[in-house]
Amino acid sequence: MLSFDPDDTGYLTELAGYVAIPSVSRDATPETMRAAAEWLAGQLAFADGRVVPTEGHPVVRADWLGRPGAPTILVYGHYDVQPTGDLAEWTSPPFELTVDAGVMRGRGCSDDKGPVYIVLKVAQAFLAQEGGLPLNVKFLFEGEEEIGSPNLPAYLREHAEELAADLVISADGAMWRPSEPSLSIASKGLATLDVVVEGADDDLHSGRFGGTVANPLHALVEVLAGLHTREGSVAVDGFYDGIPELSAARREEIGRVDFDEASYRTGLGLDEVFGESGYTTLERLWERPTLEVNGVTAGGKYTVIPHVATGHVSCRLVPGQRPDAVLAAITAHVEAAKVPGVRVSVRPDSGSVPAYTIPADHPAIRAAAAALEDVYPGEEVLLAVIAGTLPATALFEDVLGAKTLFFSFSTADEKLHAPNEFMRIPRLRQGMRAWESLWRLLAEGPHRLAPVTRPSADVPTSSERSTTP
């Protein structure tokens, strides 16, 4: 068993330097993003850590291949972070790691700098104390996950042979809640689009022209409202196509999960929950797709009739749904709306992602459950679903032919993407112990990884098949 530092002071001091780099991939300078990448590469010096350029922000690569004949894993994570949001809502500076009542607070400490840091410390401890890792490990950390990984597909395909592995382990993808250890066996896909309504050539004075022309914002509200029924179902024909019926066995399995709907509701500051009828709250969260209006851009608090109004829409998808088919169905639905006096169009975004699943009986899930049982003795390991999207998972399966195991020690309640993002400090040590155990289990014994079958170069990947007319 590895020995880790006797207290957290050194870890927190080191991690503070990483969190202090404001690596917001949406708008940080190239110099800032490279600084974060170089910090990681320095931590990976034992495995030839290096910063590798892409068409966007660089990736960080490293390889420790000192166990001939042993399984090979690829550890994935990201060094970019979300924007801070309203600084007035933060109780401490977002890029200053603040320790308070058993938590550390700062942008990226939970998503994904803290979880990635855990893996680095485990690898370094193995090298220092045992002279090597128990299996071969490749590292790939990107700087664009928070903006949809736009340059990862091209990089991965170009370097597929170098990155080949028997399993991908993601340090990203938080556990469901802090009350018990959990593993995610699925994550939802994603498709996004804009609904654009255009009227006159310019914004118009609402007094001089009001009542004589159609208002694009009024029309947009009508179109967006028509995307759902009053009962909460998506009203788009074809949206639910391909989704298998939720089986009685799965409903029973979900029903056995300890889930307090009243606490869920009150924790959000709500009087009631709402969603697609015929399903429980947890069934909707884990098993059903969604279509959400995320925002509207038009006019402002001044007296004009805006000449254009845009609605921003996102869909979280489940197994059986094809992103291209969902986008086509929404486009047909919107274009069929009869709204006089305006022009209505749909602009799908690129980078749609299908839903991802890993079987509950996959060897990696069994090994990860055993590792968590070592760290949390007597606690049942919950098999959960990530209601969010991790774009890289489908890509890894397509290009490398390898499944992805989510093994993060942040939790979904730690204000990821929101002001006052935090991570529970005890999760650092718990995560280190669990990663140690997982690597040992995957290296030998009944949970040892078997080589995967790589996809043939002349066989289309699943993402390519999904876009074939």
TrEMBL record:
Polar residues bias locations: 459-469
Single GO MF annotation: metal ion binding
SUPFAM superfamilies linked to this entry: Bacterial exopeptidase dimerisation domain, Zn-dependent exopeptidases
One GO biological process term: proteolysis
Organism superkingdom: Bacteria
One Pfam family in the UniProt entry: M20_dimer
InterPro entries linked to this entry: Bact_exopeptidase_dim_dom, Cyt/Met_Dipeptidase, Peptidase_M20, Peptidase_M20_dimer
Residue ranges, annotated region (Disordered): 450-469
Keyword vocabulary terms for this entry: Hydrolase, Metal-binding, Protease
Keyword Chloroplast in annotation: no
Domain named Peptidase M20 dimerisation: residues: 185-340
Name of this chain's protein: Dipeptidase
Organism, as annotated: Nocardioides mesophilus
